[in-house]
Amino acid sequence: MTGAAPDLRVTGVSPEAVVFDCDGVLVDSEPLSNAIFAQVITEEGLLTTFEDSVRLYLGRSNAESAAQIEAALGRPLRTDLIGEYERRAAAAFCKELTAVPGVRELLDELAAAGTPRCVASSGTPEEIALRLEITRLGHYFGDHVYSASMVPRGKPEPELFLHAAAQLGVDPAQCVLIEDSRYGVRGGKAAGMTVIGMAALVSAEDLRAAGADHVVDEMPQVRKLLGL
Ligand SMILES: [Mg+2]
After folding, report:
1. In the beta sheet, which residues pair with residue 104?
2. CATH 1.10.150.240 domain locations along the chain
């Protein structure tokens, strides 16, 4: 579709499977995560604002973010930055993490329709499991939870999404991916999927520039796009 066309016109999107990013799509973790990540990077010696964290690291794996931080510092990390981030984030999530509004209803409808679905996240399996457990979303996915740690290269490369589609037994071209990050959108397009961008911390404009086929700003719009 062109940038000028309305996002919610009748699209005919009728996927064989729906692939969900985790952070920012299933769980509303990104405001908390980026505040904490900016804080630990700044403590390491690289002044980083919340906005910097969103722009540079949202949607990447922790390992890839750490490599990027070391490159910016021009030296190895002095602290266990990722471990500290994970500890603080887990504590904050246990208190405050919620599901993204409307996603439970979408998952109920997909489950009722028998549409295969999975999670494909830059997080580690442990991080994904924690988020799904706190928000009680895990039962919608069963074993179909895929982490960037399962493939050689994470988002924005297509490998995680190709792995997810292969595990579901579905052609990537017949999958719809829901993503809130530029890295994720790029990875999904590289895998040949139809990508719905969920604009929140990353703008609709940036998601479109990354290649999103459709952009929404709330979950009920995804339900309309999918004809539910
Ligand atoms: Mg995300």
Report:
1. none
2. 30-96
> Which DSSP symbol is given to 39?
H
> Burial of 177 by CB count in 10 Å (0-12 exposed, 13-18 middle, 19+ buried)?
buried
Q: Give the model confidence (pLDDT) of 69-101 as tens digits.
A: 999 999 999 999 999 999 999 999 999 999 999
Question: Can you tell me which residue has the tokens 């799509």?
Answer: 25
In the structure, what pLDDT confidence band is assigned to residue 227 with cuts at 50, 70 and 90? confident
* Upper half-sphere CA count for residue 222 (Cβ side, 13 Å): 30
Give 101-122 pLDDT, tens digit per residue.
Answer: 999 999 999 999 999 999 999 9
How close is the Cα of 60 to the center of ligand 1, in Å? 8
46 Cα–ligand 1 center, Å = 23
pTM: 0.90
Please name every residue paired with 177 in a beta bridge, in sequence order, or none if there are none.
19, 195
Q: How far is the CA of 85 from the centre of ligand 1 (A)?
A: 17
171 Cα to the center of ligand 1, angstroms:
22
Ligand 1 centroid distance, CA of 53 (Å): 13
| CATH architecture of structural domain 17-28+97-225 | 3-Layer(aba) Sandwich (3.40)
**Assigned fold of 30-96:** DNA polymerase; domain 1 (1.10.150)
